[in-house]
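HUMAN: Now follow token order:
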Amino acid sequence: MAAELIDTVSHTLRDLPGGARLVLVDDGCSPSLEASPAFESWAADARVIILRHALRRGAGAARNTALRWCRENSIETTILLDGDCRPAAGFVDGHLARHRETPDAICIGGGIEGTGSGIWARLDRMMSWFTSIPSAGARDVVGTVHIPTTNMSLKLTRLRETDVFDERLRTGEDVVFVARLREAGGRIRFVPEPVIAHRDRSDLKGFLAHQLQWGRHTYFVRFGRPEDGIGRRLLFVGLFVPCIPLYAVLATWLNMRAWLTAWPGDWPYLPIVWVTYLLKGCAIVDGALRPSRALFKPS
């Protein structure tokens, strides 16, 4: 991850407009950011703010720490970017321009271009970024669709103090966050640009691990709550298990309908996508029965 993070920070700083700041959150990393060969230059750069967690608290907590710093320092617009992504030229200015074009938007998501070669990278791309295809048109994000946290910008002056990421979730905090903004009446937009490149998982193990982890959090972000007791979770499992084949069909249709509109030649992947959603259905059950697989404990 160190090499990926260095690449991300280097590309972001190279194109950072005047007055902007780059906030890095070291979420109890081992080794810490200080061990990075680039740390000394980052620490000496007045544009770079480095925040640290003594213990690893998860992605939701890291994002909340950055947002808290931005609020305290009267930052108007915040852009979220993961450490395994490379922003295109004009990334920051692009987000600021989109907010000027839609001043009533509370949240804007840009396009994500997956990178990597081979079948597993392609599958990771089509199953992870089908809501953020760069060739898709600009639109309001409605219904149950969400946009990923990476390449997301927020108008902090329109956010409430309670609009934060759920720190209890290992993954899926972006799903809950977007849903809460929408329920509160916030306008959420997807725009094709600015684009980031994401380094997709190029081997079977990495691809399946990512998909199954997303399955494990699905009960808590879509159907229930982290505080649900065993009785409610058992009831859900009993109702959901017979529906797993139907869930796989519907999820495959929603996923591939968007993807095949942009890439019609990828139809041969349909059976693999369906099988993957069957496995994710089993992971949903696993997460509901074993919350520790989906919920986070600081370490």
